[in-house]
Amino acid sequence: MTVRVSFDKALVALQHDILKTASLVEKAIYDSVQALVKQDMAAAAQVIMGDDMIDNLCLEIEDRCIKLIATQQPMARDLRIAITGIKILVSLERMGDHCVDIARATMCLSGLLPIVKTLEDIQLMANLARQMLKEGLDAYVNSDVERAREMCAKDDEVDYIFAKIFRDLLAVMTADSKAVVQSAYLLYVSRYLERIADQATNVGEAVIYLVTGERGELN
Amino acid sequence: MPGNGIKIAVQELDLYYKDLQALYKVNLNIVVNRVTALIGPSGCGKSTFLRALNRMNDLIEGVRVKGKVLLDGYDIYQPGVDVVNLRKRVGMVFQRANPFPMSVYDNVAYGPRIHGEKNKRRLDEIVEKSLCDAALWGEVQDRLYRSALGLSGGQQQRVCIARLLAVKPEVLLMDEPTSALDPLATLKIEELIKDLKDKYTIVIVTHNMQQAARVSDTTAFFLNGEMVEYGETGVIFTKPVDRRTEDYITGRFG
């Protein structure tokens, strides 16, 4: 039985809103890569505009974490919930920024010939990164350390595809100097996705800290 | 004034204990259905201010008041104000639980009886409802007719709150209501305060700054008889405007 009913409610609301933000970020990853693949400039512009909403949500929830710490003096696990909330928000905000980066790269690619094979790999990376984010947040709400670890292990797959894209694009650029511009931008995009996946592992590390109080490097 | 969410408007309030001035031109609007915490070091005037809100200070000899305290727009210091009725509308909970040496039931029924309620069934209803609202019913329903003095400190304090609720007040003044209680009983009272604000307007004085932070919506910081800063609690405890407030809440005072 809990005595601090209203405080517990505030913590639940906090986690709920972090999830809401994460779902926006997940959508931004999907939308930014779809815009790239389909060369849809309007959709890319949407991603860029939508990031303000993610940023504002992150700031608003972070403020609530700060106020909870200042006014409710959370201890032990409660304190870790508030601190972890802030850390996860930082990761989410950064992921959102990378989606904007991808959308900007898409705009620079406008009218250039696509490199189909790499775009396929980029979609694979994006799907993995989204899945990692989703599983990281599942682990967060369910305090599931195992799930967090499994999710982080997926980062190796992302890194593997990134290395492959890098090699492929080097080969493309070497063979065809007219494809250098596209290749350079796609290299950026794949790098952003690789960073998004790294941020997802940060979420996983935060979950492990939340549940166990232990620190660990998982990527 | 009524209708804009302000339950009590304090305007330019000066208060003197004989020659000693305890409050200096205090202006403060107490908002309906919110918990307002008054904080500040000992002797800052916060308890004096609290007692000025239902004229408890009248009981102390040599007290003089200047300025206005408007309850729903009417000055409670006007001549001819019915002080008993005022204190029914603006009730008080004290530092030490002070149940009467009688049963739990009689404690809670005391006020309604004094105000003329004789109907047993209606009294039963009032007692049960008041004890429920004070989050105590479940703990005492089997021992309503035994002495309230046999209860724990936290339960006694909730009997006092139930006793207050039984006369249907509008404002609850709480003067360090948990300073004599252990941490768990304290958290229970704090949770109760948060529940009660839906129906009442609450003003609480506390030496425990963390308690003010936990329980209140708005906080007023008093120092040397002046109201230094008043604002949303989340703001006061994260980015106060006045340097003196910052020094006090960070423990760097003096």
- By CATH, the superfamily of chain A comes out as Phosphate transport system protein phou homolog 2, domain 2
Q: Work out the largest interface and the residue count of each chain.
A: A-B, 11 and 13 residues
Number of helices of chain A: 7
Beta content of chain B: 25-35%
Strands of chain B, count: 10
- Low-confidence parts of chain B, pLDDT < 50 over ≥5 residues? none
Helix and strand pattern of chain A: HHHHHHH
Which CATH architecture of chain A? Up-down Bundle
In order across it, which strands form the biggest sheet of chain B?
A: 6-7-8-3-9-10
Low-confidence stretches of chain A: none
- At the first level of CATH, the class of chain A is Mainly Alpha
Question: Brief description of this entry?
Answer:
The complex is a heterodimer of chains A (219) and B (254). Chain A has 219 residues and is an all-alpha fold.
Please supply descriptive tags for the structure shown above.
heterodimer, A: 219 residues, mainly alpha, Methane Monooxygenase Hydroxylase, Chain G, domain 1, elongated, B: 254 residues, alpha/beta, six-stranded mixed beta sheet, four-stranded antiparallel beta sheet, 10 strands
Walkthrough of the structure:
With 219 residues, chain A is mostly helical. Chain A has a single domain, classed as Methane Monooxygenase Hydroxylase, Chain G, domain 1 (Up-down Bundle). Chain A has 7 helices and no strands. Chain A is elongated and about 70 Å long. In chain B, the strands form 2 sheets. Chain B has a 6-stranded mixed beta sheet with strand order 6-7-8-3-9-10, with helices on both faces. Chain B has a 4-stranded antiparallel beta sheet with strand order 2-1-4-5, covered by helices on one side. In chain B, a hairpin with a 2-residue loop joins strand 4 (63-71) and strand 5. The N and C termini of chain B lie far apart (38 Å). The mean pLDDT of chain B is 93.
